[in-house]
Amino acid sequence: MKRFRFPLRPVAVIRAHKELRAREAFAASVHAYVQAEELLAATRARVAGLAQMLFDGRGGTFLAAEAAALFRSYRAECDEELKVERSVIEARDVMQKRRAEYLEASRQLKIVNQLEEKARALHRAASLVEDQAAMDEFAGYRASRRVLLT
């Protein structure tokens, strides 16, 4: 029986490396997206806290300097929230792009692996045919020896 040799093995190795790199890039983009979401949640909590302080302070005495400073910090946090929302959207877009790249690399690797499985099955079938032919030949020799010896 001949040893199995898959001629596309180097292609499979390259595609496996490409798939691994794509998986790592996708994982990094998911991590960045989660961090951006956490930052957005923290920013929204700060904005909600400042808004609550703004509305709670309306019942007491009005101090213009304090109110102006509080409103400036509220506006700054709102602007920061918009920036963080944009970064979340960008991170989501990058994550979707990396996901598509990973799925494509995975699909390409699966194609080569399926070709290898088919080649192995054909090799196995051919070796079984060879083995059966050798057994038949051996049985034929044995039968002819019996006829000659009897």
Describe how the helices and strands are arranged:
Layout: H1 9-56, H2 64-149
Q: Could you provide a short overview of the structure?
A:
This protein has 150 residues and is mostly helical. It has helices spanning 9-56, 64-149. It has one domain (9-119).
Descriptive key words:
150 residues, mainly alpha
Give structural notes.
The chain has 150 residues and is mainly alpha-helical. It has one domain. It has 2 helices and no strands. α1 packs antiparallel against α2. The longest helix has 86 residues, at 64-149.
Number of strands: 0
Order of helices and strands: HH
The averaged pLDDT comes out at 91
How would the global form be characterised? rod-shaped
Quote the beta fraction.
under 5%
Tally of structural domains: 1
**Span between termini:** 34 Å
